[in-house]
Each structure stands twice: as C-alpha cells, then as structure tokens.
Amino acid sequence: MTELIIDRDERLKLRAQSHDLAPAVLLGQNGLTEAVLKEIDKAMNARGLVKIRIPGDDREARSEIIARILDQLNAALIQAIGKTVTVWRPIPEQKNEEKTEQRPDREARKPRSRGGKILKTDKKRLAQAKKPVRRAHPKRGRLVKKAMGAKQ
Fold it and tell me: For the chain, how many structural domains are there in total?
C-alpha cells in the first residue's frame, strides 16, 4: 500500500474539521505495534479523520512512525504539529446495507413514559421531530405550601 495523496483544497477543509478533534489514538511506550495499527484502522473506518498522539522527543523517529502509518493504512497526512498528527482516509462503504434497512425507524416509535414523565431520550427525539408531546398523565400545577404561622 502507498500513501494517499489529496489536493490542497481538500487538505485545508479536512484541517479545519480536525481542529476541534481530540487525539483518538495515543501511542504508548512500545511505539507503533500491530495492535495500535489495528486501532488506528478501526478509528479511520468509523470516522475517516483521526488525530494521533505520538510520544517521544526524536523528530526522526516520529517522522518514521508517521510514514509507516501512512504507508500501511493507505492514508493521507493532513497535519503534523509537534507530537500530534492528523491523518485521513475515506470511510469505506457499508457492506451490510440490508441489515441497516431492517431496523425500525427511530422517529416512528412512540414516546415512553413513566408516571407522566417523558424520558430524556424521548424528549430529544421529539424536539427534533417538532411534534406535540403526548403525556400519559397531564402535568400538575406546582403546589406551594404556605409555612405555618407565616405572615402574609
């Protein structure tokens, strides 16, 4: 496999997207092992854009590690600042599209309630759908008890 090469405009867009990402993979004392490569590969399959933190003060060793990552995972170097490296690879198409189509639509489910309260997950979903909230029991007004012997 070889390093993926992308044009300048695409690299700038990806650099802007990676600005607020936290490093997803941190290399340990053992450096770049097969397990770390698998973890980087898994993160790239899920997200596409991944930040990697490489420890050590030797610049040459870091550049060798970066070159090995790019070569073995067929990725493109987006940015390398200090010990943090951002790499990108297009997200592969899902092979099991049939399984995802069999899932029920999340919007179609009715809200669950417990004693008139709607669960937080349902509140978020209903807020996105902008539908009126159906409650099992109507909301009661707030009752304020007056303190005994308090002056009015």
Answer: 2
Structure tokens of 121?
Answer: 């997950």
pTM confidence score = 0.59
- DSSP string covering the chain, please? -------HHHHHHHHHHTTTPPPSEE-BTTBS-HHHHHHHHHHHHHTSEEEEE---S-HHHHHHHHHHHHHHHT-EEEEEETTEEEEE-PPPPPS-HHHHHTSPPGGGSPPPEETTEE-HHHHHHHHHHT-PPP-SSPPPPPP-PPPTT---
Q: CA-to-CA distance for 88 and 21, rounded, in angstroms?
A: 13
State which residues form the domain around 120. Answer: 105-134
Same domain, residue pair 71 and 121 = no
Residue 12 and residue 84 in one domain: yes
Q: pLDDT digits over 62-71, tens only?
A: 999 999 999 9
